[in-house]
Amino acid sequence: MTSALATRIAEEYAAASAELPARVVSAAHRELAVKLLCAQGLPATREENWRYANLRTLERVRFAPPSAQPGGAAPEAPVSESALPPPIEGYLRQTFVDGVFAPELSSDARRAAADGTAAREPVRSSDARFALLNDAFADDIARVHCSAGSEPSCLEVLFVARAEGSRASSYPRLDVKVSPGTRLNLIERHVSVAGDANFVNAAVEIEVGSGARVTHFRVQQLGARATWIDTLNATVGEDGSYQQHLVQLGALSARSTFRVRLAGPRAAARLHALAAADARQTHDAYALIEHAAPHTISEQVFRGIAAGRARVAFNGKVTVCAGAPGTDSRQSLRGLLAGPEAEIDVRPQLEIHTDDVRCSHGATAGKLDESVLFYLLSRGLDPDTAQQLLKWAFLADVVAKIDIPDLKRSVERALAGRIEVAAELKELL
Amino acid sequence: MSALLKIDDLKVAVGEKPVLNGVTLEVGRGEVHAIMGPNGSGKSTLAHVLAGRPGYTITGGSVTFDGRDLLALAPEERAREGVFLGFQYPVEIPGVNNVYLLKAAYNAVRKHRGLPEVDAFEFLGLVREKMKFMRMDESFLGRAVNEGFSGGEKKRNEILQMLILEPQLAILDETDSGLDIDALKIVAQGVNSVRGSERSIVLVTHYQRMLDYIVPDFVHVLVNGRIAKSGDRTLALELERRGYEWVSEAAA
Questions:
Q1: In chain B, whose CA is at the least distance from the CA of A428?
Q2: For chain B, percent helix, then strand, then coil, each to nearest 5?
Q3: Which residue, of A71, A292, A343, B2, has the greatest Cβ tally within 10 A?
Q4: Model confidence, pTM
């Protein structure tokens, strides 16, 4: 980070700090976060794990959220419910506009219950430096705390970005805590309304108790000029399961950084991610899964398409600690180059400190198979339809795993904007 | 009436290597021709070149289909004009549903012929009928194109596609390879069912076995990229008895 940027962040924080609520992050912790940021600097593309991230927009961003801009928030047009994605059947919704809870756009009023909880002050690894920025500026928090119950809780948290990044930033903050034996189905979506050049910096903390099961659907559909930076930290206890479905569609530049720690025996983590980037979009992800206990299970599946001049990168790392014999880890990372100027980088990394492991890791990146394309042409399909069809097929496995019908349809519709035959395909599939 | 397919002194190379060295062949409407020959004689190349597969260089000669210059057409145009290639190795396409491909192909051909597209319901009726004829299981409908199919299922699927697309010219490349006798009979029954005055068939095969079930009007032997000998079906039987060598020697 240039020192000019660090200085600006520190200055903006100093000007905004009086407005930033302690119930979200304590003042002491905010100050510590700013101090650490200034000392460590924000990540830069010369760093190995950040090579593909597009961080140029940071220079033009005003970091304080709208609620803490000096001189008070400039009035923004209210967000109407019709501008939001339709609700998902069976799911209550909490909507946050520029990071702040909007009760009038929410169907779930239970949020207040968790409000009294003391702010959790997470420890940040060096790959989580953008989360420090969130710690410093976050002006609200979505707390999803589930305690025992036989039925799974179903909740959607919708983060709506409205402010242009040149005026203010948006800090979605999500804190998920699932008690032992409890089930949670959580949808997390990020969309833009009005402006599409938002700067969104999300921080997500997840704690899956022993024997608990969390299925987390994440859909990023921000506007065409938005920047999305996302840091997710999850811990899974004994016999617990954390499954994430990530769909990256929007934003000009999106970067996700995950760290999932399998802390208890037989804990499992599964990440099924897809990215469809076009034009000049960048979709970049770094996913680290740490096997820290015996007989833990992990799976990473990634399918990414880069068309136009887009860049898609997925760096999936698995570390198996000495104390994690019997680890079972599987990785299947595939990238599809769909434009002469597009770029794909999929990288599997494995670091093993014990002998007793079963790991299967595959990564491929390439163009559409010519022989498959010819087969379709020989049946009379025009080249464009054939290519669209194969792109759709490439993503089909990961889309099929989104087992909430309304959400799957919504993802398919969004993909249909990218892949024209998709709408037609659905007729028969 | 002029021949449906007219191949005149066709020369084809893969890279620098010549594969076809002047093939001349006429296929009339309603005729069934078998092209036989030893491995590497250029049989499959001929089939693929007719369907428009990229990667081949035409170095001489011409191909006329229904009065048009076939080689000037893109692969999908050839398909819509009524040329069908049954693949020796049908590709697996995970994620693409069989029925979707069939319907997209069927409607592409219909659109080209100025016919209205059919709806899903009507189309499924047609597919079910043809599947029954090919003794294919209902579960096929929900599966991805050729994914996890046995060799025999893949070949049956090729013939099913042919039955649905109703091409003017079907080129079947080693459709008999990898089939057991029961599957071969089903495939042959499928092929025979489309025989008629309007449909021409070119069977590319290494063995005469399939010709017991699909009796050709003409048999040609391809050797070193040229048709070395032509005859009726007795030629196939003679090849079976004597092997390919005597033709190769005679042609040399």
A1: B100
A2: 40, 30, 30
A3: A292
A4: 0.85
